[in-house]
Amino acid sequence: MSQPILEVHDLSLSFSRKKVLDRLEFSLRRGEWAVIAGRNGVGKSTLLRCLAGVLLPDAGAVARSPEACPAKTGFISDRLSLFEDLTIGQAVAFHRRVFAIDDFDDRLLGRLGVKQKERIRSLSAGERAILHLSLVLSQKPSLLLVDEVLHMLDPYIRDLFIEALIEAMTAQETAVLTVNHTFSEIERLPERVLVMEEGRFVVDETPEALRGMMKKVVCRGPLPNGLPCFFSKGEGEYKEYFIYPFSEDLRAAHALDFQDIALPEIIKAFIGGGYEQKRMA
Amino acid sequence: MNLTIDAKSPLPAYQQVIQAIKLEILSGGLRDGDPLPSIRDLAKLLKLNPNTVAKAYYALAADGFSENRSGSGSIVRVPPGRRDHLRQAMLEGEFRNFLEKAVSLGFSLEDITQLIARAKK
Predict the structure, then answer these.
(1) Please, is B105 exposed, middle or buried when counting C-beta atoms within 10 Å of its C-beta (0-12, 13-18, 19+)?
(2) Residue A129 Cα to chain centre, angstroms
(3) How far apart are CA A144 and CA A169, in angstroms?
(4) Helix intervals (H) in A30-69
(5) Which of A46, A195, A216, A229 has minimal Cβ neighbours within 10 Å of its Cβ?
(6) Helices B13-26 and B80-104, interaxial angle, to 10°?
């Protein structure tokens, strides 16, 4: 494995009295795809803004390798903020001056039927996302930070968006860090899944490892003692119990059906468990 | 080519890619000398991480199913003789699974012979 292109140590940030990032540790390698999940307001977007350099932390440092310098880092925020009054052509010219890019690939916009002279104000959320993506991809980025934007795109645009990210990964080994809470469509893409809780990562695993670590048990009445239940759901007679951390010897010790669950459901359980812990606190 | 990835399968995606391509080769859909789809194309098609596809291609080459040609992708490398041998091995493996299941359901070899005779009609 190659050297990290991005390393974060001891990152902390507070908004007035609320601690948003809490001594967070993280690193990302070249060509790696990692996804950050977690409940709303847990610090995911704030972290991405810190990594993009648009927000300065109170403490700690973001260390980038030269290849992940700001000109080679593309950031797509969930606000999709662009200059509303510019036409697409003007936005491209501006981006070209700032980042000294050679060529702008307008094929994706073309496929949506968007013209260069249209004003950004008049674009739909999906068209904006594709414009934003096309702009940052023209930087030939070695690092792409993409906040939760996929959920607001229609399925066709979502496909275009994901395919463009895959293209960038094969073309220049771009590392991709995305924030997603619903990710059934991209669940086979990340090599690392990070779950954030109260300003730090509580999970950092490969999808395969994570699938091995959480199982679901559906049973009547309470769960037998000695099982690590991270989260449970259901008001009726039958309840779903999410067992985490699961290990294979639990299978031998309990005559229960430990079901394999797919990644989106695992993430849902982590998020639900996060709310439960918050309630108890 | 009939390639799909089952998101719910406990099998890692790269192993699903390996299996799907092996099956394609054994069934004759991909022949000796045929190019495999490029890593980029397959990753886009299946919505997979290109590193996952690359890992599968690397394993296929290591198993002697394909050859990586620098710059021009991978091609299938399975001479017909070897293919027949692998097909036979696969059939036997599947048949053994079937037998085990049948026996665990309480059927005898005779029942199975009868079943095959009936299927022939």
Answers:
(1) exposed
(2) 15
(3) 10
(4) 44-52
(5) A229
(6) 110
Q: What does the DSSP 8-state code read for residue A224?
A: P
Q: What's the token pair of residue A10?
A: 């001891």
pLDDT tens for B22-32 read 989 988 889 99
* DSSP character at residue A81: -
DSSP symbol at A39:
-
Q: Kind and range of the H or E element at A190?
A: none
Q: How far apart are the CA of B27 and the nearest CA of chain A, in angstroms?
A: 26
Output phi, psi for A251, to 5 deg: -60, -40
- A187–chain B Cβ distance below 8 A for any pair: yes
Total residue length of chain A: 281
How many C-beta atoms lie closer than 10 Å to residue A66's C-beta? 8
Contacts of B46 in chain A (CB under 8 A): 188
C-alpha A217/C-alpha A240 separation (Å) is: 6
Query: Does residue A207 have a cis peptide bond before it, meaning omega lies within 30 degrees of 0?
Result: no
State the complex-level ipTM.
Answer: 0.80
By CB atoms closer than 10 A (0-12, 13-18, 19+), residue B12 is middle
Reported pTM: 0.87
Residue A175: closest CA among A27, A1, A25, A29: A29
Distance, CA of A32 to CA of A194 (rounded, Å): 13
Q: What region does A221 belong to: left with phi over 0, alpha with psi -120 to 50, or beta? A: left
Average pLDDT over residues A67-86: 89
Q: How many CB pairs under 8 A join A and B?
A: 51
A116 touches A162 (CB < 8 A): no
Chain segment A200-243, per-residue pLDDT in tens: 999 999 988 999 999 999 988 888 888 999 999 988 889 999 99
Q: How long a stretch of residues is chain B? A: 121
Whether the CB-CB separation of A141 and A99 falls below 8 Å is answered with no
| Tokens coding B10 | 């406990």
**Furthest-apart CA pair in chain B: how many Å?**
56
Q: Which residue has the tokens 């080679």?
A: A72
Structure tokens at A114: 């968007």
Q: Do B40 and A208 touch (CB under 8 A)?
A: no
**Sheet of A143-146, strand order:** A73-76, A143-146, A175-179, A33-37, A192-197, A200-205
CA–CA separation, A153 and A241 (whole Å): 33
